[in-house]
Amino acid sequence: MTAPRLELSHVTKRFGDVVACDDVALSVQPGEIHAVLGENGAGKSTLMKVIYGALRPDAGEMRWNGEPVALQSPHQARELGIAMVFQHFSLFDTLTVAENVWLGQAPGRPLQAVREGIRRTGETYGLELDPERPVHVLSVGERQRVEIVRALLGEPRLLILDEPTSVLTPQAVERLFTTLRKLAATGCSILYISHKLDEIRALCHRCTVLRAGRVTGTCDPTRETNASLSRLMIGREPPRLTQRAPRPGEVALRVHDLHLPRPDRFGTSLAGIDLTVRTGEVVGIAGVSGNGQQELLAALSGEDPRADAGAVQLLGAPIGRKGASARRKLGLHFVPEERLGRGAVPTLTLAANLLLTRHEALRRLGFIDRRALRSQAEGIIGRFRVATSGPAAVARSLSGGNLQKYIVGREIDAVPRVLIVAQPTWGVDVGASAQIRAELLALADAGCAVLVVSEDLDELFEISDRMYVIARGRLSPSIDTHQATVEQIGEWMSGLWPAPAAEVIP
Amino acid sequence: MNDLALLLAATLSAGTPLALAGLGLCINERAGVVNLGAEGMMLVSAVTGFAVAFHTGSDLLGFAAGAAAGALVAAGFGFLVIWLNTNQYATGLAVSLFGGGISAFAGIDYVGRQLTERLEHAVPGLSRIPFLGPALFRQHALAYGAMAAALAIAAFFYRTRAGLVLRAVGESPDAAHALGYPVRRIRLAAVALGGALCGLSGAYLSVIYTPLWVEGMVAGRGWIALALTTFASWRPGRVLLGAYLFGGVTMLQFRLQAQGVQLPSEFLGMLPYLSTVVVLVLISRNPLRIRLDMPASLGKPFFPGT
Predict the structure, then answer these.
(1) Cβ contact, residue pair A103, B292, below 8 Å
(2) What CATH number does the domain located at B2-293 have?
(3) Buried b / exposed e across B264-283, counting CB within 10 Å, b at 16+?
(4) How much is the ipTM here?
């Protein structure tokens, strides 16, 4: 038997008092698709950064094709043939797609060749991208495509993918899996980090499970069940959502014939959007990112108040031209897609972040009642079981899942009439996801109208009562979730839905 | 007509030091480092350049010494802010004060000294064209060098991979580090190159423009170059334009004062600043373009490995 492509033994990495990786062993064969399974904070990302040379381990050994190596930098890792697709993207906002990819290549290749490479890789692997678009106008999903294409163009021998499917349609996930299988067949090893059990069982040959920095097991995922993998990962089975009977009430949010020209030439124009959400109902909007979700969310939240006043109605009142604060006063709350930067200010404390959307602790002349603010924050932390040192912790110090629980909690705690949530569980671990979804359902049961825009179809099927699909700036008719199938929604995502009977084409 | 030609010529020679320094600052700010020490670097280079030209009798050696002195001071600044992560603004101010002091001290013996006889500059042939000759073609070679530098730097930024890497480092040092680029070394190189151009500018002032050494002779041009770079939204062509605009209006208002125009001299003295800011703000008023041009990590320290 040949030496493993990659072999780690006794790898330990500490940050201060926290042990992120504790005596980790891992071995990957050539051509093997190897899953690294674990909750957020289990040490997966740290371990990958060690392999990629971005972090140096405090102890342990790494062997590449049998040879011991001590990586000093990602540069050295790439020279060995290790490529990585990051979860928190390492892209340059102001540069174009082609330039971003170019920067990840060895010198000497002309930009034109990179452009062609992007097109070719896009066609082969179903990762379509316009090389000339600047990255700052791309959605999360499109940015991930850039990262994947960048990694593939380097023809790696080991490809590390960190949660790559969170933003893909089911068809695109299948295509990506085909891609990865093809790639593995050429002898390239793949490290696939995920907490999605179904995907790991469908794709991976072997699986190493991490919990709290330690390896809790190595197995063949095709022979395991979701329950057995879950036990290895979180020590118990995942919580189940209880079935609920929706009791839709009056129309809370109504969008009628909303047209919006795109804000810049790289955006998506919205055309004839019709949408209703009733109280007591969870409505989902599915779609591949970059199809108008950002524009629709901006028009609904009030960030973009250009719509006709009557095109967006909240409980019968026209709000199309009102700003975000005015809408919030009327009972429409919003959880944006980006947690750090839009949902929360990274460097402010959790308590101070409350003041972004909540004004209960403000006194006359805008003075802050610090004690009231702290106890309000403590209330949210306690009610939504946010794992943190307390209200004085800065937002950035929380893990993605905990911060999301706090932000969603902040809006739910305000008792909104309508809550709009974008990507509620993007990059959030299984336990926290289940909790956030359960909170959204409970909120709907309490009579709130909940609109969830997500690229995670499983999530939408799990929590929404009705679904719409957005594609190229147009919105499909709605469909009851229990009548919909994944295949059908996937088809709608490419813009192929039956025309509504009422629409007469002249 | 003749007056206009002379005014244009004066504009070019007054704009050249601003252009050189502004282009240099453009390079290091595109890499994400603000160097407020420009004034100090230019003073150190001015006295170094003057001294070398005085002792050797060679302007060329004077320029080389000035550029080297600028690069050296900038490299010291770079080491402090890039490796020791001292605050860029405070360190830059310190360099500025330090440069003013040490250049005054080192230059005591050179005050009032004369360089060898200055020659008239002329581009062969072209300088004899009526009007255009005296207006454009009787400049020192460095004046044309500044124009060429603006073109070259623009091509570097927007047409080469190295320029792209430089911009990437100023945009997101963390992402550049993750891709394996040596962020600190790239920043140091950019800072040193910027210092060399500022140094060349200082040496041009003391060896060609004035040409003599007086304490504090840079007279705020370093600060103006810093402001120009920002108002020109870090684009080399606009830096050049802003420099000539500032130089031109300065010369114009001198002339107006000399002719006894009935306007307070304080008002006239304000004109170069006002007109340059207004024009550059009008040119770069598209917020999206500014966002694309501005180095996102400008002035922020970078800690690798966290």
Answers:
(1) no
(2) 1.10.3470
(3) eeeebeebbeebbbebbeeb
(4) 0.78
